[in-house]
User: Fold this.
Amino acid sequence: MKKKILIVEDNIALSQRLRDRLERCGYAVETAIDEPSARRLIRKSGFDLVLADVRLPKGDGLSLLEWLNGGHRHVPFVVMTGYANYPDAVRAVKSGADDYLPKPVDPERLLDTVRELLRPSLSLPQGGKTLFRLGSPAAREVERMATLVAPVEVSVLILGANGTGKESVARRIHEESDRRLMPFVAVNCSVISKELAPSLLFGHAKGSFTGAEKDTEGYFGMAEGGTLFLDEIGTLGYEAQSMLLRVLQEGTYTPVGGNRERRADVRIVAATNEDLAQGIRENRFREDLYHRLAEFEIHLPALRECRADILPLAGFFRERFSSELRKPTEGFTPEAEERLLSYPWPGNIREMQNRVRRAVLLAESPLVGTEELDLPDGGTSSLASGIYPHPKGDAEWKSSIEKALALCGGHRGHAAALLHVSEATLYRKMKKYGVK
Assistant:
């Protein structure tokens, strides 16, 4: 079933261009030119996402957002407005908008935003993007494992918490394999219902059921010759697991209503944040499917386990969003860097990305501060981490330097920021106290 998007935009030409682009990507799209007509459409038919201009002939996009929130309609919401109208963007973020698109709307960023917010069943690789490469020992080990297994035709199971970058690892495996010139298809298994699983996975023939107006490829057909990434595999229904297991065992499948068997020439990379061992014990996950998927396992560390990556990664996102939002920034305040390091990041990399984007949008000075980051202290201050806020005496200085260097993965510049001293001062004190 297609995801439904409502575009609320009084510029008819722009509205049609956005509609055409989204419909070509497989979304069902309706349009409205003002807030009252948008409300009528929302009452009449539910939507999976709303894309609204701020300034409208009647009402405005932010009032529409507040109306949705007031009625407890939890619909992803994106606002559009001109580059100069940052107060609108700030108000949108504070009102609960999920994202902000400056005009003129960049088509690629539009699609990236829609795909991310809808967690769509299908995503295709975006060539030419610069990806940040983590440098902590734990992250380098993940990279080494991915590079090692990439050219080997075995199924891979990626384990890790939400937001740790499982899809990025899957793409790396694909891009370093012999299948790199063929499709990479990412499937969010949590949206595959029991009723739609056969058609979504294997496709269907025209006339096989009501509404089947043409032959349609399933995910296996879309990924022919390439890699099929099954994200959130632990949420896949038991019957769908049985169908998947049969394809992995036999290497063939038949589209719904079809009469010709097809060969499944795909490589499977799966990922989950679920405890599959517990799922097996509770009969929620098939043990035989687990062994088929886990020919090679890669465990992703949480961001809090990769402290050396936190400040460089935050800097990467700050530069990226400064460019995208046209909000020039130069860095973080020392207090903000300290908070970035002490925060436990339960949402991992995805949470950092969202928080830094919001912070850049709200920043009113070149240095992003703790107020814009809005990270709860949670009692994890420098003192709680073993770092004295104002070291006194040799023992406190030595202990604070050692703790700061450990927290920053040995990076002297970041440790100096955490201690509120220059790198030169830190170096002198390291020599004085014999810290290496």
Remarks:
- The two ends are 59 Å apart (CA to CA).
- Residues 188 and 427 are 49 Å apart (CA to CA).
